[in-house]
Amino acid sequence: MQNLDGDDTRPVIHLGQADPSAFPSFRTTPFAEDAVYAALRSAHFNGYASTVGIPAARSAIVKYLSKDLPHKLSPDNIFLTIGCTQALEAIRTALGRHGANILLPRPGYPDYEARAGFCGLEVRHFDLLPDKDWEVDLVSVEALADENTTTIVIINPGNSCGNVFKYEHLKKVAELAKKLGILVIADEVYEHLNFGSTPFVPMGVFASIAPIITVGSISKRWMVPGWRLGWLVANDPLGILIKHGSGWFDKAVRFERVLCKKRVAMASKAEMEGSRAFPDLCDCKADPCCC
Ligand SMILES: Cc1ncc(COP(=O)(O)O)c(C=O)c1O
């Protein structure tokens, strides 16, 4: 807004309304305020914490997220981050390598493009279809993807359209990701904040079809974006990321460039198809940053 032309007198509508705390009617629960206050006064949390988050917080968040999933998450599946923003930074940094590309929704959340460019990820846009409740244009996703595609990003509920994807549609996205051998990043920072009657379904529900990395935070639902608490979760009941990623998932949150997309994707595909003939972890010589 500060970049607007001061001489232009036309009224401007500010559409960037992502901070609920700006409105006095939206205030977080006193339970949360009391808990933070008690934690501060206890003097138990003034030191350096583990970079992946303190165990009690990791356990509490996986318990909360597991309620909506067919599988149970373990505290080892989650990394706490500085808001959802840092979770997204970590994952894009891990995916970035020369020639790799990422599939992003259009319209979408512009931070994705900015950070992807910074990490050396080529951005390819697929459309959300206004006539179909902003569903993903699955045909265009398939046309856009190639052997250098790492990931598809699904923002649900959607920013900027406010749409909520239906169960059947999300399942189709997971099936397409499996077919293409790519990961799904599910940005669920607006989880459970639904307009309309479609219930929110976490993408992790389909993690037995394709591995899903879910990112989220307390910023929106708890209306405290300034508290900067987010997470990055591996929804991977088949253990594909852990088994074939050579620890990349752990390292991702420490900002190391360790993901060899080809290796993970090929292994994921083979594993999901029930084949044991996936490439050995050290077989991939195509990518200098993979091992
Ligand atoms: C789609 C989407 N993802 C991620 C974020 C970042 O969330 P956080 O404030 O927790 O960093 C936002 C913030 O507006 C968002 O709209």
Automatic annotation (TrEMBL):
<protein>
    <submittedName>
        <fullName>Tyrosine transaminase family protein</fullName>
    </submittedName>
</protein>
<dbReference type="InterPro" id="IPR005958">
    <property type="entry name" value="TyrNic_aminoTrfase"/>
</dbReference>
<comment type="similarity">
    <text>Belongs to the class-I pyridoxal-phosphate-dependent aminotransferase family.</text>
</comment>
<dbReference type="GO" id="GO:0004838">
    <property type="term" value="F:L-tyrosine-2-oxoglutarate transaminase activity"/>
</dbReference>
<dbReference type="InterPro" id="IPR004839">
    <property type="entry name" value="Aminotransferase_I/II_large"/>
</dbReference>
<dbReference type="GO" id="GO:0006572">
    <property type="term" value="P:L-tyrosine catabolic process"/>
</dbReference>
<keyword id="KW-0663">Pyridoxal phosphate</keyword>
<dbReference type="GO" id="GO:0030170">
    <property type="term" value="F:pyridoxal phosphate binding"/>
</dbReference>
<dbReference type="InterPro" id="IPR015421">
    <property type="entry name" value="PyrdxlP-dep_Trfase_major"/>
</dbReference>
<feature type="domain" description="Aminotransferase class I/classII large">
    <location>
        <begin position="12"/>
        <end position="237"/>
    </location>
</feature>
<dbReference type="InterPro" id="IPR015422">
    <property type="entry name" value="PyrdxlP-dep_Trfase_small"/>
</dbReference>
<dbReference type="Pfam" id="PF00155">
    <property type="entry name" value="Aminotran_1_2"/>
</dbReference>
<dbReference type="InterPro" id="IPR015424">
    <property type="entry name" value="PyrdxlP-dep_Trfase"/>
</dbReference>
